[in-house]
Amino acid sequence: MEKIKNLIVGSGLSGAVLARKIAEEKKEKVLIIDRRNHIGGNVYDYKDQETNITIHKYGPHVFHTSIKEVWDFLSRFTKWHYFFYKVRAYIDGKEVNIPFNLDSLYKVFPKKIAFNLEEKLLKCYEFDTKTTILELRNSKDEDLKFLAEYIYKKVFLGYTSKQWGVDPEHIDASVSARVPIYISKDDRYFQDTYQAIPKEGYTKMVENILNHPLIELRLNVDFKEAKKELDYENLFYTGAIDEFFDYKFGKLPYRSLDIKFEKYDKEYMQSCAQMNYPNNFDFTRSVEYKYYLDEKSEKTILSYEYPCEFEEGKNERYYPIPNEENQKLYERYLQEVNEFKNIYFLGRLGDYKYYDMDKTVDRILKFAKTKEIK
Ligand SMILES: Cc1cc2nc3c(=O)[nH]c(=O)nc-3n(C[C@H](O)[C@H](O)[C@H](O)COP(=O)(O)OP(=O)(O)OC[C@H]3O[C@@H](n4cnc5c(N)ncnc54)[C@H](O)[C@@H]3O)c2cc1C
């Protein structure tokens, strides 16, 4: 048996950041393994050889955060290409800003109606604030109620039913509670302080995080096999918690995506990086990658996302399905973890939780601060 002080399973953002913290701050050796043939987990990107356009293999990733500590930490390992994400949706044949904002009103309604709605919104809410469909629904004003219904039906319902594979009539209206309406002309998708894409890509950034003399990386190694030969003192597992326990209580469900990439003999196909299709086609959104790093090519590459169920061996775990039943199942697994004093479950798969990249890093930075790591 090979003796290992710290074993990390998974070289995604979680595993990489933790490896760096242990190596740098504890000054201890770390072995990090991944069953894929590349580092980076789901933020892995690569250059398309023909066009030199950077592609995100597991779906489009735009970094945004207001957590300065996360920004500062990652900035040690990458230079940034500052990038404000613009997302539009095709609604009634028009390209409409998402989140829905004051300009969106004028895209979909006749000028008179749009003006009336804008006036009413500005009367009820301060400029540069956000409200939600739910709030507008509860308004006493019939016009604002109408606006809430319009956005619910045209922007939210179709997209959500495709995303989660649920018939529109089975989507509880309360789920739309948090869908924002922006009382502003700000057409950025995020309003975080820091918004950018790593200049040389996410893979390079993760490679730099892992580049430390105390960190050893082994790819194409599945924990299932490796554990037979590794005697570890501490195990940090960023893979799926149910898989670790051989699904003894059942499988934690995930939503997956069939991502289809298309190359076109055209300089640009879309007016912005992401286009949503709430009411047309089977895909939810299309993304034109060259926008992210402002890459120049006579050709362009888009991806189209077709949501589907997760099936092991067939596709990837993407989105945990948040409901009470699944949370209970996850907690049953978590109780098993308490049996071990030296095993920690982390990351989106270990925690069975959707984390944006910044929350992923934040989770690990906070974890590393605790005294738990022996
Ligand atoms: C479609 C999509 C789009 C996204 N877009 C954004 C975005 O625009 N902005 C944003 O902030 N966030 C985005 N995210 C979230 C982002 O992908 C996550 O925050 C991040 O990837 C989480 O990293 P992780 O290390 O926890 O998990 P992962 O990246 O999944 O890493 C886990 C690693 O563990 C390995 N592994 C698992 N089991 C084993 C095993 N048994 N043995 C060996 N290795 C194993 C896997 O191969 C994998 O490499 C998006 C997520 C999805 C699904």
From TrEMBL:
<keyword id="KW-0413">Isomerase</keyword>
<comment type="similarity">
    <text>Belongs to the UDP-galactopyranose/dTDP-fucopyranose mutase family.</text>
</comment>
<dbReference type="Pfam" id="PF13450">
    <property type="entry name" value="NAD_binding_8"/>
</dbReference>
<keyword id="KW-0274">FAD</keyword>
<dbReference type="InterPro" id="IPR015899">
    <property type="entry name" value="UDP-GalPyranose_mutase_C"/>
</dbReference>
<feature type="domain" description="UDP-galactopyranose mutase C-terminal">
    <location>
        <begin position="154"/>
        <end position="354"/>
    </location>
</feature>
<dbReference type="Pfam" id="PF03275">
    <property type="entry name" value="GLF"/>
</dbReference>
<keyword id="KW-0285">Flavoprotein</keyword>
<protein>
    <submittedName>
        <fullName>UDP-galactopyranose mutase</fullName>
    </submittedName>
</protein>
<dbReference type="InterPro" id="IPR004379">
    <property type="entry name" value="UDP-GALP_mutase"/>
</dbReference>
